[in-house]
């Protein structure tokens, strides 16, 4: 089993982790990727190499996702058949927890093994909030609840290496993209409880709250934007068609057909396109089957809220769209595109 540690501007905790892994747990294969840390940190990586680690280097900082891909590609080319466990270099992953993940990888082939922190005790607010937010977004996106979506302690079978090198993303968003892409690729998850360790209020983290959070949430934000424009179009057409025809049914159908054509085009080209061509023959029938389901649900909910309960049409429309939004995203990501 290869222990892969992406590292950017590390301190002595990296060497302490290496010592514990080699001397106390007997781990032999440790691969470290220096993600452009610079000359100031050269001595630490040289000490790691002297301790028996393989050290790969980026000349400039490319991001955690890029460092992980460099490591995965190295293992793939050098015949790592047992699997890979990824750990962070800042001392927040205990050697005994890393061993837990290695054992779980051997027992659960074709599964992504996640070291799941329990978030008990003193946890920095930004870490607690960040994980809660990404957990909610991931659950909405896939319908699969995961306790710790931001864990850096993860394990993979060797037959996943080709796929891991193809997952989009070069920085922190790579790990979220991996979780989003895994169900479509046929990989399920195993969560293994680990200790929650934050040293010095997590000051060593290179995670940039605004920039990196935007990257993580970008797939969902693109869908929100596309759906937002489609919803505005649907709103305008709904009121226009009702004014022209005085029929709620005709207004709902007409508005939905036109806005759905717009939404399909946007989602196919910009939202769910990960650099690969999406077949119209395959996605179009699935999308408009979903449109029919949502249209029926849309009319039923509007009729319930507006006609039966007598909620004003504007408020009824808002409630209806909110209820159908998450369902639409889940189905489109998993089955349409």
From TrEMBL:
Question: Sorted alphabetically, which InterPro entries does this protein's record hold?
Answer: Glyco_trans_2-like, Glycosyltransferase_2, GtrA_DPMS_TM, Nucleotide-diphossugar_trans
Give the stretches traversing the membrane: 247-266, 287-305, 311-331
One cellular component term from this protein's GO annotations in UniProt: membrane
Limits of the Glycosyltransferase 2-like domain? 2-130
Keyword Ubl conjugation included in the entry's annotation: no
State if Transmembrane helix is listed as a keyword: yes
Main location, first listed in the record: membrane
Q: Name one GO biological process term.
A: polysaccharide biosynthetic process
Q: Where in the cell is it found?
A: Membrane
**What residue stretches are annotated with the GtrA/DPMS transmembrane domain?**
222-336
- State the UniProt keywords alphabetically: Membrane, Transmembrane, Transmembrane helix
Q: Topology relative to the membrane, per the entry?
A: Multi-pass membrane protein
Q: Which domain of life is it from?
A: Bacteria
Q: PANTHER family from the entry?
A: RFBJ PROTEIN, UNDECAPRENYL-PHOSPHATE 4-DEOXY-4-FORMAMIDO-L-ARABINOSE TRANSFERASE-RELATED
Q: Name it.
A: Putative flippase GtrA (Transmembrane translocase of bactoprenol-linked glucose)
């Amino acid at each position: 089993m290869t222990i892969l540690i992406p590292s950017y501007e590390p301190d002595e905790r990296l060497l302490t982790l290496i010592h514990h892994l080699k001397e106390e747990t007997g781990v032999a294969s440790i691969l470290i990727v220096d993600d452009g840390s610079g000359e100031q940190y050269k001595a630490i990586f040289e000490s790691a190499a002297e301790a028996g680690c393989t050290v790969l280097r980026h000349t400039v900082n490319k991001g955690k996702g890029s460092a992980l891909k460099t490591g995965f590609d190295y293992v793939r080319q050098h015949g790592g058949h047992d699997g890979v466990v990824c750990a962070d270099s800042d001392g927040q992953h205990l050697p005994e927890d890393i061993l837990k993940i290695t054992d779980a990888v051997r027992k659960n082939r074709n599964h992504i093994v996640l070291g799941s922190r329990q978030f008990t005790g003193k946890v920095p607010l930004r870490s607690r909030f960040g994980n809660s937010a990404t957990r909610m977004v991931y659950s909405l996106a896939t319908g699969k609840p995961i306790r710790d979506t931001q864990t850096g302690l993860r394990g993979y079978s060797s037959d996943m290496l080709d796929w891991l090198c193809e997952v989009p993303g070069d920085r922190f968003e790579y790990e979220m993209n991996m979780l989003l892409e895994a169900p479509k690729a046929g990989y399920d998850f195993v969560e293994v409880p680990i200790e929650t360790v934050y040293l010095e209020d997590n000051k060593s983290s290179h995670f940039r709250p605004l920039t990196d959070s935007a990257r993580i949430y970008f797939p969902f934000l693109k869908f929100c934007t596309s759906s937002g424009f489609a919803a505005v179009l649907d709103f305008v057409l709904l009121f226009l068609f009702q004014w022209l025809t005085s029929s709620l049914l005709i207004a709902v159908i007409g508005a939905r057909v036109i806005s759905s054509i717009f939404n399909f085009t946007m989602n196919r080209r910009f939202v769910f396109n990960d650099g690969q061509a999406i077949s119209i023959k395959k996605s179009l029938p699935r999308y408009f089957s979903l449109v029919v389901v949502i249209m029926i649900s849309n009319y039923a909910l509007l009729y319930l809220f507006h006609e039966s309960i007598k909620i004003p049409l504007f408020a009824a429309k808002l409630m209806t769209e909110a209820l159908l939004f998450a369902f639409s995203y889940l189905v489109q990501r998993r089955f349409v595109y």
